[in-house]
Design goal:
globular, mainly alpha
């Protein structure tokens, strides 16, 4: 087992913030990091999932930092990629695709 202190109330609160359509990327990353802690506690059988989630969260963090908008919402990220046709140009590495893969 893991030494992580798990508090389901904190996880629930983090996920309830995502119900807002203007949820920030930072809130999204936080909620998935908490969920990823739970996945990590499931043992070696889930280590691949744990690592994959972490890689996608790191991509989202880099995107948030590179855009210079610390409070940017998921909606803004996706709209920006649609407007700039990033989804058509880079289908594998787009932030929107990583958000969808996490869900």
């Amino acid at each position: 087992m893991s030494d992580i202190n798990f508090d389901p109330k904190i996880l629930t609160e983090a996920w309830s913030q995502l119900l807002d359509e203007n949820a920030s990327a930072k809130a999204f990353i936080h909620a998935f990091r908490l969920l990823n802690q739970v996945i990590g506690m499931l043992g070696k059988a889930f280590s691949f999932v744990n690592q994959d989630v972490e890689k996608k969260l790191q991509i989202l963090e880099r995107t948030e930092i590179s855009r210079g908008k610390p409070g940017i919402s998921l909606h803004e990220i996706m709209q920006e990629e649609l407007d700039n046709e990033i989804l058509k140009k880079t289908p594998v590495a787009s932030t929107t695709r990583n958000i969808l893969r996490l869900y």
